[in-house]
Amino acid sequence: MMTDERLLKRTIVKEEILSQHLKENRTLRIYLPPGYNEILSYPVVYCQDGEEFFNFGRIATWANQLILEEGIEPFIIVGVEVNTKIRTEEYASFGNRFEAYLACFAEEIIPFIEKKYPVRRDPSERILAGDSLGGSVSVHLALRYPELFTRIISLSGAFYEQSQHIIALETDLSWMNIFMIVGLQEDNYATDTGVYNFVELNRSTKKILEERGATIHYEEKDGRHLWGFWQKELPAALMYFLQS
């Protein structure tokens, strides 16, 4: 990555919203691109694990580089922060806060951002991004709110059996476009709910999605279930959707 000072000069705003669904405040981090102008309109990337996408994924620096050096159209990033202690309860389809989280995201966070920032409102201009359970909850958000979300970046998605079952209930996913990547060294990964083979989970989920007509960009590469792997893959994932 370039250490050019222009790439490190980032505008990141913090917002806080009170969620009626989650009965608590939720912090958002918003990246505004170089040359940001309120009278323009921008594509938008919504990230689960917002804090980690900025701190470990270095998504703001990557965004600057793509915009300033690769000629990508400027875009806004919204990182939705999560309390890691209850992350599984919100992101996993079997979690006790899952329904409330989906509702908060679609019915509270999206309207808040769209009222305050000049983001485009067409589903083709909105991207959901997440790692591990953040990848699977992004798919579930799209399934629940297809009028809002059709484009998903899944970095080593945690597509557990319950998630696969929910996806398999769908009959037509021709409207969905998903960028999936998984690391080949993720075949025996311990989580707070068990040990999983993420390679097999992603392969079988890809098959379920394909059978229902989804558009999929799928890759397996050397890599572990860590930000060290995902960070390097973020630029290609973003360019997949943002390159005109």
From TrEMBL:
It comes from the Bacteria. It comes from Paenibacillus uliginis N3/975. It holds the Pfam family Esterase. Coiled coil: none annotated. Transmembrane segments: none annotated. InterPro entries: AB_hydrolase_fold, Esterase-like, Mycobacterial_A85_antigen. This is Enterochelin esterase.
